[in-house]
Specification:
By secondary structure, this protein is α+β, with helices and mostly antiparallel strands. 25% of the residues lie in helices and 42% in strands. It contains four helices and 13 strands. The strands form two sheets. An eleven-stranded antiparallel sheet has the order 6-5-4-3-2-1-13-10-9-8-7. The protein has a two-stranded antiparallel sheet with strand order 11-12. The radius of gyration is 25 Å and the shape is globular.
């Protein structure tokens, strides 16, 4: 009788262990197939930031990053220039990428400095504020006054032009141009939830235009300049690495969950 009980106990323990393993790998398989038909949506985010130096020189800082969507998971691919130099010259220069991935609705994601690097947990809000300008208010429904509307403008569904009623400092543009599209389906990134909700269209481009003018506390005249932010559809050249990164994120995320 004791032997029978012992065997029964072993069988029960094995059954529990087997179910645990099956549950874990089922979650892994489900995670690896996340997203409808493994579909990936990709956009490129481009921006231009004008910087006026005290010597009156205007410098335009332009950059871009890539955003990929697969189900509820979002990947940001950040290009940077990798440079090797000696005492006399640059010996190597190439574009490399770092990556940040998170699941929609979660507060933290994983940052990878390269394809093979270990992950580091980062705050989603902090990353998006620093790298994608989220949290910045481009449109003020109190101070911005709509002065012109053009439908079906070139490749855009709608173009709106606004001017500021009050310009408290040099950060306020002389005119604000907002471009809308009926494309970019499935893209979660937004310049203004308020305007997109009202228009039932996606904002794909914003231009903030400044005339050449004097400002208080500055002795020189600021040059004409423009801030611009744009989202465009992007063709994915290397789907293999993109899928690999999504699947690695899901594995890392599950590893943390089962620790």
């Amino acid at each position: 009788m004791l032997m029978i009980k012992s065997h029964k106990l072993i069988i029960v323990k094995l059954a529990i262990a087997t179910l645990t393993i099956i549950s874990f790998f089922s979650a892994m398989c489900s995670s690896n197939n996340y997203g409808k038909n493994n579909e990936i949506i990709s956009v490129i985010f481009k921006y231009n930031i004008p910087v006026v130096k005290l010597n009156e020189e205007l410098q335009n800082i332009t950059d871009s990053l890539y955003i990929f969507y697969n189900g509820e998971d979002i990947l940001y691919m950040l290009p940077y220039i990798f440079t090797v130099e000696n005492d006399t010259a640059i010996t190597k220069q190439e574009t490399r990428y770092s990556y940040f991935i998170y699941r929609k609705g979660e507060n933290t994601g994983y940052y990878y400095s390269s394809l093979n690097a270990d992950n580091n947990k980062l705050s989603v809000d902090s990353f998006l504020m620093n790298k994608a300008f989220t949290g910045n208010t481009f449109y003020d429904n109190v101070n911005d006054s709509l002065v012109e509307t053009i439908r079906d403008y070139k490749n855009y569904s709608l173009l709106e032009k606004y001017i500021s009623k009050i310009k408290s400092d040099q950060s306020y543009p002389d005119s604000l141009l907002i471009y809308y599209t009926n494309q970019l389906k499935g893209v979660d990134f937004t310049f203004s939830k308020e305007l997109e909700g009202l228009k039932k269209l996606k904002i794909s481009k914003i231009r903030m235009l400044y005339n050449s003018q004097f400002y208080k506390d500055y002795s020189f005249k600021f040059p004409k300049r423009e801030f611009s932010f744009e989202l465009k559809e992007n063709d994915i050249a290397d789907t293999k690495n993109v899928f690999s990164l999504f699947n690695r994120f899901r594995k890392d995320r599950l590893d943390k969950k089962y620790e």
